[in-house]
Amino acid sequence: MSPIAVAIRHNYSNTGDGTHPHHKILHTAFYWGTEAEIMFPVWPGKSPGMYALALVFVFTLAVLVEGLSHCTVVKPGSNRVAGGFFQTGIFAVRAGLAYMVMLAVMSYNAGVFLVAVAGHAVGFAVFRSFGFRRGSDS
Length: 138
Hints:
Belongs to the copper transporter (Ctr) (TC 1.A.56) family. SLC31A subfamily. The chain has 138 residues and is mainly alpha-helical.
């Protein structure tokens, strides 16, 4: 085991007698596998089905981030103050979702990284390239 991996070993249950039977190693480089912890301890667990669900969740979050990044829902001529508050709320939600995607990628699981990038790409394609293009806007 590398010195870095040993240095970042975390104890999830202390028996109280000085022994630590359940050590978990946090990854410091990308790895493949369905046994990952994404955003929360013990989630998605060791089940490949739950891992697949976690990948779908991260993909959906990334698509939503792109959707909120490229949508303008305040119409010209509307109340500027109300529109400003609404846009601020949308920005706050987008920032929160973007941080959740970032935390998922920080699990260093290669599958999570790939679905996050794919989610951003699909979201960009749908919301910027195809879906919300107006006339000559790009």
